[in-house]
Amino acid sequence: MKHAKTGLLLVMITLMALVMAACSSNNGQGNTSAAASPATSPEAAQASSEPSAAAADNVRTVASEKGDVTIPANPNRVIGLSIVYPEFLQALGVTPIAVQNFHPEFPSYLEEAFKNTTKMGIARTPDFEKILAAAPDLIIAPTWWSDKDYDQLTKIAPTVLLPQRDDWRDELKDIAGVLGKQEEADKVIQDLVDHELAAKEKLDTLVGDETVMYMMIMPDGIVLYGENIDRGSFVHKTLGLKPVENFPQSELSVTISLEKLPEYNPDHIILQMNDDSNETIQQYYKEIQSSSLWKNMTAVKKNQVYLVGGEEWFNLGMSPLANRYAIDAVLDIFENKGQ
Asked: Which is nearest to 326 in space by CA: 199, 181, 161, 228?
């Protein structure tokens, strides 16, 4: 990252030199014009004020965690920093020009939309060179992620920092407020609610009282999600799938070893590997599959273990696009089970 900062500094120095040279040239031309031109007439003065009024129409002021910020009235080269902000932008009909990406590839539900979007990789300090090269006219970011980088970001483009939120719906509305797309945000939220209710009704018929458990394979253990945390809440509350009875209700999630897994023994398992490309995780999953403890579980014996994509389910519970994809995936699992 030191190399990235050095490159950015050189670029900024070059740009400053060009600006100073241009200003010097313009100043010279201005002096010559002043010496040769008569006093400005009232009509000319009125005409000269019109471009300023037009320029004012092309910008607007929005609130941010750093105070009011002047941004383009209709930004068309927007960057949303953090993992989930790009999905909020896309949900509102604004395709970001560059994103921070955790996985090497975009989730399948974003592949087409993001085909021309620059990948900058994920890091707590963003790649300023790539941001500068993308030539954004607006940067939007959560303050908890980008407050430390604010001064550098504002040198590239107007930057709006938004507050930390516990609910993705509030984050979506914050971004919609910046872009003037409040109605679009309300529609995204309501459409998802309608989709959730329809799916829940279908799944009640398809699954009934059979138990479902959401588990994730980590490099050093297995995580089971309860109904009071994002992924577990999605499965058990949003979609209404019955949890195992002995999951500790005081815990949001539990990390266990393979030896403890049979104690929960659900009828169905929705399984995700934390990182599909991680060789350690892949090897651990192979070890789990070869174990007699695993093979004797009800879900395994009935062929009711459903492996879901790590990239597609990465932002589950944090994005309307990820949630909609997961709803459709779960419906597909149970509608086509046994076929």
From this structure: 199
Yes or no: say if 183 and 238 are a contact pair by the CB < 8 Å rule: no
Q: What is the DSSP letter of 262?
A: G
Q: Give DSSP secondary structure letters for 41-107.
A: PHHHHHHHHHHHHHHHHTEEEE--TTS-EEEESS--SEEE-SSSHHHHHHHTT---SEE--SSSS--
| Cα–Cα distance, 200 to 44 (Å, whole number) | 68
The three-state secondary structure class of 6 is helix
CA–CA separation, 293 and 202 (whole Å): 32
* Mean pLDDT across 82-86: 95
Q: What does the mean pLDDT of the chain come to?
A: 85
User: How many residues are given for the chain?
Assistant: 339
Tokens of 78: 């927007």
> Chain centroid to CA 97: how far?
13
Cα separation of 184 and 108, whole Å? 23
Measure the CA–CA gap between 139 and 146, rounded to whole angstroms.
10
CB-CB contact of 188 with 91 (8 Å): yes
Helix (H) or strand (E) holding 36: helix 2-36
Residue labelled with tokens 């879901």: 308
Q: Count Cβ atoms below 10 Å from residue 129 Cβ, excluding itself.
A: 17
Report residue 339's pLDDT band, with 50, 70 and 90 as the boundaries: low
Task: Read off the pLDDT of residues 117-159 as tens digits, 9 standing for 90 and up.
Answer: 999 998 778 899 999 999 999 999 999 999 999 999 999 999 9
| Positive or negative torsion for Cα 198, 204, 206, 212 | positive
Pairing verdict, β 212-218 and 159-162? unpaired
